[in-house]
Structure formats: structure tokens, C-alpha cells
Amino acid sequence: MNFDFSEEQKLIKKTISEFAQREIKPIVDKMEKENYFPYEIIKKLGQLGMLGGYANNIDTISSSIIIEEISKISPAIGVIISVHNTLVCNGIYEFGSEEQKAKYLPPLIKGEEIGAYALTESHAGSNALAISTNYKKEGNKFIINGRKIWITNGPQARYILLYAVGDKQNPKNSITCFIIDTKREGFKVGIIHNKLGLKGAHSSEIILDNYIAYEDEILGKEGEGYKIAMKLLTDGRIGIASQSVGLAIGAYELALKYSKEREQFGKKICEFQMIQYYLSEMITRINASKLLTYYAAYLKDKGEHCRLEASMAKLYASETANFVVDRAIQIFGSLGYSTDFDIQRYYRDARVLTIYEGTSEIQRLIIAKEILK
Ligand SMILES: Cc1cc2nc3c(=O)[nH]c(=O)nc-3n(C[C@H](O)[C@H](O)[C@H](O)COP(=O)(O)OP(=O)(O)OC[C@H]3O[C@@H](n4cnc5c(N)ncnc54)[C@H](O)[C@@H]3O)c2cc1C
Q1: pTM here?
Q2: What residues does 144 pair with on adjacent strands?
Q3: Which terminal Cβ of the chain has fewer Cβ within 10 Å, N or C?
Q4: What separation in angstroms does the CA of 47 have from each of 42, 118, 126, 222, 290?
């Protein structure tokens, strides 16, 4: 058994960690206050070779390192990158034709274009088979109509992996994944959702109004979309587990530092056993989350089935992140409740982790299904 990162992975960790301190930290406040989308960071990450996933020789462990290091400073940029790399780039790499890879991947790898993944609708959240966005085949054209909600990177994306149903009576075998070009007629961004946290990462409605797609814009084959959507969510969940680990470490480190500075009753608060109890629980759960996450990534890189492990990692790491931010606020006392301090940002950002890319309840269902197989 080997717990070491390879030399290349160590270099990625060092490079991305320095980048996050140098380039991301200074714009966190602007993202927070102005809901500013950090285009320039995405471009720089592209120049640094951190985008594109497998297509750019970034294995799953490296991808987890990248998302974790970014999320320590900005969980919002963490989710932008997680969606772009794990759901979109890996999706095109794994299921795309050679022509599709050649057309779509280079600008996504360079950060010149941004990707999004559009499955959710107002009546189809956990139950993706209930989607109503539909397509009709006319000659060589596929005419798509419908409305998606909560699409991360929706307002910025050039290419979107969008799922539409061909036969509402038989969704499992007729949902198809289309690569949508957002510059084409028939595509519109709807409202941008107001959110509790992750400011600067935008989620929006997207609207397809007689949008015309062609055969060579189908990812995989017609009718394979549901399988592709679920398969990509397994990868995506490792990404969100990494985002959760990074966020939890970011909050834990702030709380640890503060506990060594703040004095009450003539002592640093870290000298009180109850604060030590919180800190030890926080770091133990964080390390357990890390191990689950990197184990799922390791299995994925070995080409093994990792649906169970990805769900365990996502479930445990996202619940841990929420546990950690809660205790971190407790350690900060009243300052934790003040919007003038950074710790509350982690608290707000953490809340969605147990909801998107499959809620905690859905992860438990998947885990149960896998172990009872
Ligand atoms: C910030 C943000 C970004 C997002 N980004 C994207 C994106 O990029 N692309 C995309 O397609 N979607 C995205 N989503 C949507 C997200 O994936 C869904 O919100 C999520 O899957 C849950 O769906 P829902 O909100 O409709 O909840 P529902 O499915 O309505 O669930 C409500 C509650 O019921 C529970 N529940 C549902 N079914 C069961 C069951 N069978 N057993 C037990 N409990 C159950 C759920 O766990 C939850 O607690 C995003 C959401 C948010 C908030």
C-alpha cells in the first residue's frame, strides 16, 4: 500500500497551492461582494495546465488535488472547475468521437471556453428520469425545447452537455446527451439564481427554444444519455468530495489559528479541553474524508468500478464540511457570526455540498444499492 503522491502530483499540489494564495485569495472579496465571475482565473488555470481532466493528462488524483487546493481558498472557484473538468471535459474525453474531442477539448483545456452540465429541471431534481426537456428528430436535425434550472457556469458556458428526452414514456432508453453551443440561435440564459453562498460561481436557468442540434453533436449515441449522465456524476462526486475536503481544511485552519490567538480567562482558548475536543474531531473527520476521496480517485484511475466509493466519499466529505464549518463558527464565537470575517463565507458555501450532484439521501440510496447487489 502506498499513500504517497507521485512526483508529478506533488508538483501539481505545490503549483496550485501557490497559485491559489497568489492569484485567487486577492479576488475572493470581490467575488463575494459583487458576485464577480473570475474569468481571468479560469484563463490562468488553463495556461497553468490545470484544466481539461484526462484530456490534459490530469488523472483523477491530480484533479482532486487541484479542486481541493483551490477550495481551501475559494470553494466557489472549486465548483466552477469541478464542473468544467470532471463533468464536461472528462465527459467529452470518455464518450466523445475523435472529431468532437478535436473540436471541443482544446479551447476547454486552455480556459478560452467554459463548460457546463445541464440535467436538473424544476420537476426533475433527484429523479433525473423525469426530465421534460425534449427533442424531436426531423431529417438530420434534432429540435430541442425545454428549460433547465440551477446550471453551474450556465451564464458563462460556451458548451453545455445537455440532457433531453426523445420519448417521455421510455426515458431510460431515450434520454440523449447533446453538446450545446450557446452561441447558436434557440439558446437563452434565463434567471441567474440568488444563492446563500458560492458567490461568483453563477447558476442559472437555461432555455432551449427550438434549438437545432445535429447528429455529430450527440455525445455517445442517441438514447445513451441517462447512462452517460449517471456515469459522469460518479466522477463529479469525487470532485465535490474534493471541494468539500478543501473547504473543510480552509475553515479548520482559520479556526485553529484563531484558537491560538484568542484569550479568555487568562488563557488561549486552544488550551481549553472543549476547544481541543472540537479541533481534534474536525481534523480527524477531515482526514477520514480525504482518505475516502483519494481512494475513490485511485480506483477511478485504475479503471475500476467506483460508484460505491465515490458516493461514500461525497456523502462523508460533504457532511464533514458542514460539521467542520459549524464547529469553526463556534470557536470564533461572536466573530464567527459577523459578516466582516471570512469564516462565515465557508459556513454559507458548505451548505450546498450535501445537496448538489446528488443529495446525501440519494448517496445513501446508491451506497445501499451497491452493497445489496
Ligand atoms: C448551487 C447549485 C448548483 C447546481 N448545479 C447544477 C448543475 O450544474 N447541473 C445540474 O444539472 N444541476 C445542478 N444543480 C441541481 C442539483 O443537482 C439538484 O438541486 C439536486 O440534485 C437535488 O434536486 P432538487 O433540488 O430538485 O431536490 P429534490 O429532488 O426535490 O429533493 C428534495 C429532498 O427530498 C429528498 N429526496 C428526493 N428523493 C428521495 C428519495 N428517493 N429518497 C429519500 N429522499 C429523497 C432529497 O434528498 C432532498 O432532501 C445545482 C444545484 C445547486 C443548489
Answers
A1: 0.97
A2: 135, 211
A3: N
A4: 9, 26, 36, 35, 28
Pairing assessment for the beta strands 141-152 and 203-214 based on DSSP bridges: antiparallel
Say if residues 145 and 134 touch (Cβ distance below 8 Å): yes
Tell me the pLDDT tens digit for each residue of 339-366: 999 999 999 999 999 999 999 999 999 9
Alpha carbon nearest to ligand 1 atom 35, residue: 361
Rounded to whole angstroms, the Cα distance separating 92 from 162 reads 12
Residue 44 Cα to ligand 1 midpoint, Å, equals: 32
C-alpha cell, 263:
484569550
Give distance in angstroms: CA of 103 to centre of ligand 1: 32
Q: 151 pairs with which residues across the strands?
A: 204
Q: Kindly write down the DSSP assignment for every residue of 90-157, as one continuous string.
A: HHHHHH--HHHHHHHHHHHHHTSS-EEEE--BTTBSS-GGG---EEEEETTEEEEEEEEEEEETTTT-
Contacts of 200 (CB under 8 A, 6+ apart): 30, 31, 32, 35, 36, 37, 38, 74, 76, 77
Q: Where are the alpha helices (DSSP H) in the chain?
A: 7-19, 28-34, 39-47, 60-73, 75-82, 90-95, 98-110, 171-174, 225-261, 273-301, 307-332, 343-350, 360-372
Nearest-atom index, ligand 1, CA of 152: 8
Q: Which atom of ligand 1 is nearest to the CA of 365?
A: 42
- Gap from CA of 358 to ligand 1 centroid (Å): 6
